[in-house]
Structures are given as structure tokens and as C-alpha cells.
Amino acid sequence: MKTNLIFMLLLLFFQSSYIYAQLKFVQYSKEYYIDPTKKSIPFAFDYKNIGSKPITILDVRTSCKCTVTKYSKKTIQKNISGKIEGYIDVEPNKQPAHIKIEIHTDYYAQKSIILNIALKTDEIIEITPKILFWKKNDTKDGKVIILKPLKNLQFIIKKITNFSNKFTFKQINDNSFIITPVATENITMDILKIEIEGENKICQTLFVYLLIK
């Protein structure tokens, strides 16, 4: 009986703590596509204090110096809405990224709130094939990969790397490469990484998986 009473008191305490103050966001994660014609991307996260007491935003921090934030109200009264907004500077590298925004409040049960922003780019290149395969002890024949630009976009290849010296690659022309294994006696795997830059500095990274099995 005593245990049940203690449990009920604790439950009531946590329930009252929950409704004391709480910032509830409409969305906690958002995706934005990078516009190659713009230097920055505006964003906004709407919230409301659904608790019975005011709550104060003490600080807002971001995982990237490229992100500038502001908020419409520092202390939010009950049933009052507001927003965390700002912009992300995408110059000079218009590349996909993940940005975390951490909001600190004065309420002990909601000391921090995490918001997430994913920056995406439209694909500028399609690569085929994405996997090259050789059988163990096969002849060391070269195989071709082809880069196909989408939407008639111009592009340049900034850098090509692989993670071992077990394959060689040679550029045939602007859009194709030949990949050759150094040897096929052993089972192995490698990854070819191709970094592309298109018009308006839009970047894309492509991967080709190389297997001997």
C-alpha cells in the first residue's frame, strides 16, 4: 500500500513537471535543397509553449559557424507561439550537410531541445555501373565506368581517390574511366571516390565499389 502511494505521488510530480512549461515544436527536423543561385538558405522552426508557466530561452547554439539564428521571444508565456529562425551561408561550398541547432532553456525538465537541418543538392551526375566485379583469379581486364551529366549541366572532376593501391584507374575522356585490378589472386574490396563540381559550385561525391571475389 505504501509503495503504491509513493508511486502515485511520483507520478503526480512528473505529470505536474511536464505541464509546468514545455516548448513544443511543429517540426524537429527539416530538409532544404540548395539553390545554386542563392548564397544562403533561410529557415524557421515554429513552436508553442503548451505548459502552464513561462519558459525562457537562455541560448541557441549551432554545430556550424555557417548558421546564424535568432528567436522572436526570449521568455515565452503559456499558450504563446514563436519561432527559431535564421539562415545558413552555403558559400563557397554548396555541398550536402547536416546542421544541429541546440536550444537551452531555464526549465530543468527541458534543458535542451535539438533541431536538425539537412541540406541537400540535386544530383548533377549519374554514374554507371556503381559496382565493378571480378572473379578471383580472373584475367586483369579493365572495366569502364561512365559519368552521365543530368539536365545538360556542365561539370568538372575535382578529385579521384581510392582507399588502397589494389586497383588503378585511367581517364579515357571527359565522361569515362577504365578501372583495372593490380592482381586478382586475393579476395578484396575497394572504393573509388569521385568528387564532382558542377555549375554554380554545386558539388557531388560519387562512389564506385570494386570487388574481387
Question: What's the topology here?
Answer:
Layout: H1 2-20, E1 23-25, E2 29-33, E3 40-49, E4 55-62, E5 67-71, E6 75-76, E7 81-89, E8 97-105, E9 112-120, E10 125-128, E11 131-134, E12 143-149, E13 155-162, E14 167-173, E15 176-181, E16 188-198, E17 203-212
Parallel strand pairs: 2-9, 11-17
Antiparallel strand pairs: 1-3, 3-7, 4-6, 4-8, 5-7, 8-9, 10-12, 12-15, 13-16, 14-15, 16-17
Residue-averaged pLDDT: 82
Q: What's the end-to-end separation, in Å?
A: 67 Å
Residue stretches low in confidence (pLDDT < 50, at least 5 long) are: none
Number of strands: 17
Widest β-sheet, arrangement of strands: 2-9-8-4-6
Key traits:
213 residues, mainly beta, 5-stranded mixed sheet, 4-stranded antiparallel sheet, 1 helix, 17 strands, 9% helix, elongated
In short:
This protein is mainly beta and 213 residues long. It has one helix at residues 2-20; strands at residues 23-25, 29-33, 40-49, 55-62, 67-71, 75-76, 81-89, 97-105, 112-120, 125-128, 131-134, 143-149, 155-162, 167-173, 176-181, 188-198, 203-212.
Structure description:
The chain has 213 residues and is mostly beta strands. 9% of the residues lie in helices and 55% in strands. The chain has 1 helix and 17 strands. The model has no long low-confidence stretch (mean pLDDT 82).
